[in-house]
Specification:
InterPro entries: Cyt_b561_bac/Ni-Hgenase (IPR011577), Di-haem_cyt_TM (IPR016174), OxRdtase_Mopterin-bd_dom (IPR000572), OxRdtase_Mopterin-bd_sf (IPR036374). It contains 15 helices and twelve strands. With about 500 residues, the protein is an alpha+beta fold. The strands form three sheets. A five-stranded mixed sheet has the order 4-3-12-7-8. Strands 5, 6, 9, 10 and 11 form a five-stranded antiparallel sheet that branches. It has a two-stranded antiparallel sheet with strand order 1-2. A hairpin with a 4-residue loop joins strand 3 (about 340-345) and strand 4. Helix 1 runs antiparallel to helix 2 and helix 2 packs across helix 10.
Amino acid sequence: MDLVSPDFPFWLRASHLINFVLIGILLRSGIEILSSLPRLWWRNDCAPGTEWLRFTKRKLPKEEGVYTSLMDEKPVSPLLALPGNENIGLGRHWHGLGVMLWVLNGVIYVVLLFATGLWRRIIPTSWDVIPEAWESFKIYLGFGVPDVSHFTPYDSLQMIAYTGVIFVIAPLLIATGIAMSPTVRTRFPWYVRLWGGHQGARSIHFLGMVAMSIFIVVHVGLVFLVHPTYNLPHMVFGVTDTARFAQAFTIAIATIVVVIGFWIFLSYWTLADRARAHRFLVPVTEIGRKMGLGWVKMKPNSPGQYTEKDISSFHWTNGLPPTEDESAYWVASRDKDFADYEILVKDITTGVEKRVTLEEIKALPRQEYITTTTCMQGWSATSKFTGARLSDVMGLLGPRPEGVNYVMATSYGLAQKMYDNRPREPFYSVIDLNDADSEMTILAYERNGHPLDIHLGGPLRLRVESSHGYKMTKWIAEVAWIADYAEYGDGRGGTREDSALQAFNGRI
């Protein structure tokens, strides 16, 4: 007789299946993200040799500027990662989409769990659960199986595990993910410090991913090993009829195979036309960016947010200084200690432009602060930067005209590589006016009280503290007011958006 179990309503079974699909997307895209910088630190300066865990045999040189983070990237098969094959930008977009849907599914699940009273089957209501769970653990440890009477519908050990996953590990993953946002780090540095800084949050996030993976493997394994004739009809049909076990087993196996096939399909669909995947993923994930952190407004660092003690002893970099082939002017100026260095400041909408020397930029009001740089690949470093506000530099042209919506910064250097292997193009980035007008957006010419290091963008680089490093153009050649970034490059708003398919919004 098919007796409907009140413990396994349709919404519960549906949310479990959706969660299974989304967790796979998150874990596989997480592997892609980790493979772009396969090292984990507790220290925020990410100094060579201080990793607590690494998934590469490459040894880091101790000299700054000779080894970029892109050189550390490792390809992972699309069978394992989403999408795989060194596509960090698209991996981040899939991770963002997975997070949006996973959180939405989780909120609906928890709300219904409490609304229907089914929370009592998962959340322990008595301290007796601890000794009972210990007894179950000993039985499992001896390769035994607790009697079916212990499952109502779960035994005490399962209840503790489920409570931990739903109300500890899942929130921990969300909280540490938020802590890795540049916007949160700049606006609420105290929150990032709670997790031990950017690298602490990144490492804890990884450990949470490992814990979630172990739970999934054990959970799925026990479904098929512990009273499967009881479990599978419950999970698949929501009934207590053990006579339907064979049917439930077949459907469960088929579902797992289909879901795994779907995960792999997403990888190969993405890699088949990466530009198409970018066009699909970015607008969808931008909804989550705006809802999640779009409301956060930048403000200048208040005293005490960072101190001299926070300054890193080592600073990673991405990109190498311009060569003679890339910019003969920059190389010649470097050889003169940048005594004649100048940039072009212009308004593309009106054609007004002005050549400005480095000395003229240094004569503008100084802005100085200590801040942490984060790369979308995962490294971080804290430094004191000094420079002129971008708004003051653009103000050399006079009042901003109507029709201007963005500022574009172009480098004397070229992109490291283009995703479609076409010839490298001049590096550029575009930021909106909110970021451009921020006191935390500057053209920096000093770091830690000294002229800006060449490998970090000297003599002049853009700093946009609300964003990841890929928005911060180095070796500045030109800054310009523009109306629409769609008219430049591939129309995505920057070289890393064009060459690595990142998002225009670099706040997360």
